[in-house]
């Protein structure tokens, strides 16, 4: 469930098996900024997350494991490629004791992960092997789930920190503020072919890469094309069950085998630092929004389908965002 009205913010709560309260934007950004002021949930096997994800399964993540209160994990995927899980990094931060603002500043030339306005990791297209730099219009997802649930694969349970003991719950991720800004203009974004490349994306009545947008976004938008299913799966699987175990990310500045091993991870990381209708300043609550509703089950997709998934149909249209800031949850 998501508990609104608390003095410290909206509480995304896991109380029992299969709970995975999530909110999903009904608009997209094509390059832009996404910031969330929040406190991660405690608990072995509990995963808090904020995600940008496209219809082509490009993805950019922040994740927090409940059993590791002194760190945050950054990650990314391109075109749903899950052949390796070596793109992650770990950043020291007191994620459960204090509220922090975690950000993603995403452009055609670089992607910055930030904490309290300070850049702690940078990725450029040149650092990525293959054409897997995230580059298609993204919707936003914020949620919590139990990776340690006994119904998950053993690899997922191990990655998330071990089995979840629901008797020690409930487990709350607390969100105070959300900020999104589109760096492209227009009403909608159109996939003009099946390449999944940034060059294939066209803005209706606008321009891709026009620069930071102002205002309150468009209005009267329906749900996003896929409706926003429950987020009860690890990164890169927001709409499907994972079939691949997730390995431990590399410590920022360490000597792991990240695909993007040359990317910038400054030492400051240790310091707190298809719808064609117009979009709106709204989020779609899924997996139980208020009260004690249960999370819906994720869509069952054939194993590893995302690894080879490109855009399924040219001509897909998604709604643009503008500037959305300071939602009261």
From TrEMBL:
**Source domain of life:** Eukaryota
Q: Which InterPro entries match?
A: Beta-glucanase-like, ConA-like_dom_sf, Glycosyl_Hydrlase_16
Enumerate composition-biased segments (Low complexity). Answer: 264-278
**One Pfam match, by short name?**
Glyco_hydro_16
Q: Where is the composition biased (Polar residues)?
A: 215-263
The segment(s) forming the GH16 domain are: 1-175
Renumbered to this chain, region (Disordered) spans 207-296
| Protein name per Swiss-Prot or TrEMBL | GH16 domain-containing protein
Q: Which organism is it from?
A: Discina gigas
């Amino acid at each position: 469930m998501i508990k609104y009205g608390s003095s410290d913010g909206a509480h995304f709560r896991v109380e029992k098996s299969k709970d995975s309260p999530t909110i999903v934007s009904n608009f997209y950004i094509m390059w832009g900024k996404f910031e969330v002021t929040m406190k991660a949930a405690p608990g072995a096997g509990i995963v808090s997350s904020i995600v940008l994800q496209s219809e082509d399964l490009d993805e950019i993540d922040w994740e927090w494991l409940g059993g590791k209160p002194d760190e945050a994990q950054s990650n990314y995927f391109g075109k749903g490629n899950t052949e390796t899980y070596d793109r992650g990094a770990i950043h020291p931060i007191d994620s459960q004791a204090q509220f922090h603002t975690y950000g993603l500043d995403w452009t055609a030339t670089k992607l910055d992960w930030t904490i309290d306005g300070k850049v702690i990791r940078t990725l450029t297209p040149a650092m990525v092997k293959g054409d897997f730099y995230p580059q298609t219009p993204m919707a936003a997802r914020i949620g919590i789930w139990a990776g340690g649930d006994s119904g998950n694969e053993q690899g997922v349970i191990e990655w998330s920190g071990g089995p979840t003991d629901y008797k020690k719950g409930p487990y709350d991720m607390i969100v105070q503020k959300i900020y999104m800004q589109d760096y492209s203009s227009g009403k909608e974004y159109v996939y003009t072919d099946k390449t999944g490349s940034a060059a294939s994306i066209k803005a209706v009545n606008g321009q891709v890469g026009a620069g930071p947008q102002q205002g309150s976004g468009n209005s009267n938008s329906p749900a996003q094309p896929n409706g926003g299913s429950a987020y009860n799966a690890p990164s890169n699987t927001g709409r499907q069950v994972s079939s691949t175990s997730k390995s431990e990310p590399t410590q920022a500045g360490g000597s792991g085998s990240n695909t993007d091993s040359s990317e910038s991870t400054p030492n400051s990381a240790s310091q707190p630092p298809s719808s064609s209708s117009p979009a709106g300043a709204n989020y779609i609550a899924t997996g139980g929004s208020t009260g004690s509703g249960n999370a819906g089950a994720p869509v069952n997709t054939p194993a590893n389908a995302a690894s080879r998934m490109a855009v399924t149909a040219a001509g897909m249209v998604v709604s643009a965002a503008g500037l959305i800031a300071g939602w009261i949850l």
